[in-house]
Amino acid sequence: MPSQIVSLVVNGERREFIAAPGATLLACLRESLGLIAAKRGCAQGACGTCTVLVEGRPEASCLVPVETVAGASVRTLEGVTAGGELDEVQSAFIDCFATQCGFCTSGMIMVAEALLERNPDPSEDDVIEAVSGNVCRCTGYRPIVIAIMEAARRRRERAVPR
Amino acid sequence: MAKLRGRGFASVNYPTGMNLGGDPSQALIHATTTGTFVVSLSSVDLGQGIKTIAAQCAAETLGLPMGNVLVDTADTDTGPHCMGTFASRGSHRVGNAVIMAAAEARGVMLEVAAEELEVDAADLETDGSGYIMVRGAQDKRVHVTDLAMAAHFKHGRTISGRGVYLKEPSVPVPETGEMDPDSCQAHACTVAVVEVDDETGVVEVLELFNAYEVGRALNPAMATQQVEGGAWMGVSHALFETTEPYYPLRDHGPRDFSAYLMPGPADIPSQHSVILERPAANGPYGAKGIGEMTANAPIPAIANAIFDACGVRLTSMPFTPESVLRGLDALRMEEPC
Q1: Which residue in A100, B35, B132, B315 is deepest, having the highest Cβ count within 10 Å?
Q2: Chain B partners within 8 Å of A142 (Cβ)
Q3: Domain that holds residue B229
Q4: Which domain holds residue A54?
Q5: ipTM exceeding the 0.95 mark
Q6: A20, A66: one domain
């Protein structure tokens, strides 16, 4: 099977690149498009550090053959920092000290973005469930859960017109 | 059938560093033309935060803001020597080396400032915001950015410093076994509260109370994070991580980390942590190492809490549901009917 040209809408911008058969979404993002925020951890869909949003849903991009999502809208951590400003999730991760070595952080932030998109007022259990597919070996998870709760609070406050 | 609650505690004394055949770490500092002090190290930051600690030690000693310090751990092949990231040694060894290098660089910085301001270097002080000034005459001052520029282009000086911390080799005295293996020891105690399900054998850690004597917490947020992240690893060792419970053959065991059990975010206990400070004489600003010890005390504390909850004394990790149930069965066999 020959390589083919694949088109995606990545962080709002249409991008085209050549993909070998079976090339993963993760490999294409990192190697063809130079978007290296999503990390290659286990490469088996178990650790979650490669998480990106495909049509708004969090997906383990290491398991997604890119041709199966051709034409789709993909959001990566690079697309979260709109206009160079950190968003509520990112700034809450800093303020709540929810990152240590940083290898899981990109995936954690993306699952948080997806959660807050569909549920602006999550319970702690909702947050725990959302990050349950993502492994962190440094923090013990607690600061991450607290940061996402804090981000949700900040985003709700911002949404209230003054 | 019931969920039985128990509480246990354990303490740990943990050495900072080893003496190996002599254990050195080096640091080199130099100022760029714009007054950024580059700290060159071969010490690797894999998330434990040595770059932050090194920057804090350099800024504190130089008397400059953190923003004037850049820590470069680029290349272990060409950089100054470091033995490595192990034995909870980084903050202690590297911190001391950075302080030594920064003290030398500060000396040169004040010498050049003395030339620039035409005063005696002994009369100069730093204000922590980037100015070097004459003590008692604060309008006679120069900013470090201007000073570094002048050092390069006017005075022909290199503002730099060298540092090394060496833990000297120590061999045991044959008759007594006596030796000097470490630099200092940190101390900690963890109390675990667990719930044991006597029907399923599942142990759940509900709460951990951690008290850590760390010498000095150079960065309290990072110290607390290390304590609680490390405790999570302890819970993981105590209750989860094993290649064993696969039946009937070892061949059915996990081949990779996706089949290797670790606690997830839903398995975390709530933690309460206290940091106590008794500065170590040979530590950088009194700090001891607390890297590895944080995973230690939770394990025996959990074992003791299981014993307290249901009377089962487990001595090998992990404390799986199977081992708890076998222990409960053995206790029932002992009891007269």
Answers
A1: B132
A2: 228, 268, 270-271
A3: 3-15+182-334
A4: 4-79
A5: no
A6: yes
Q: Are strands B23-31 and B160-167 parallel, antiparallel or unpaired?
A: antiparallel
Across the range B306-329, mean pLDDT stands at 96
Which of helix, strand or coil describes residue B17? coil
If asked whether residues A145 and A112 sit together in one domain, one would say yes
Mean pLDDT of chain B: 94
Whether A128 and A69 share a structural domain: no
Mutate to test the interface with A, among B85, B235, B258 (most CBs of A within 10 A): B258
pLDDT number for residue B253: 74
- Per DSSP, chain A holds a count of helices (H) and strands (E) of 5, 5
Q: Are residues B34 and B100 in the same domain?
A: yes
Give the mutation candidate from B44, B52, B190, B268 for the A interface (greatest A CB count, under 10 A).
Answer: B268
pLDDT score recorded for residue B245: 61
Chain A residues within an 8 Å CB radius of B266: 128-129, 132
Chain A residue with minimum CA distance to B262: A135
For chain A, 162 residues long, the average pLDDT of each consecutive 10-residue run is: 95 96 97 97 93 97 97 96 89 94 96 97 97 93 96 91 58
Residue of B90, B142, B89 whose CA lies nearest to B111: B142
Cβ within 8 Å, pair B265-A141: yes
Given B229, B257, B264, which is nearest A139 (Cβ)?
A: B229
Residues in chain A: 162
With pLDDT > 70 as the criterion, what percentage of chain B qualifies?
A: 98
Looking at residue B227, its pLDDT comes to 96
CA distance A114 to chain B (A): 17
> Which of chain A's residues have a Cβ under 8 Å away from the Cβ of B241?
none
Nearest Cα residue to B227 out of B278, B286, B285, B272 = B272
CB-defined contacts A:B, below 8 A: 60
Verify that B186 and B294 share a domain, yes or no: yes
| A140 contacts B258? CB cut-off 8 A | no
Residue by residue, DSSP assigns A84-103 as G---HHHHHHHHTT--SS-T
Please say which residue of A79, A97, A128 terminates a domain.
A79
Chain B residues in contact with A44 (beta carbon < 8 A) = 256, 258
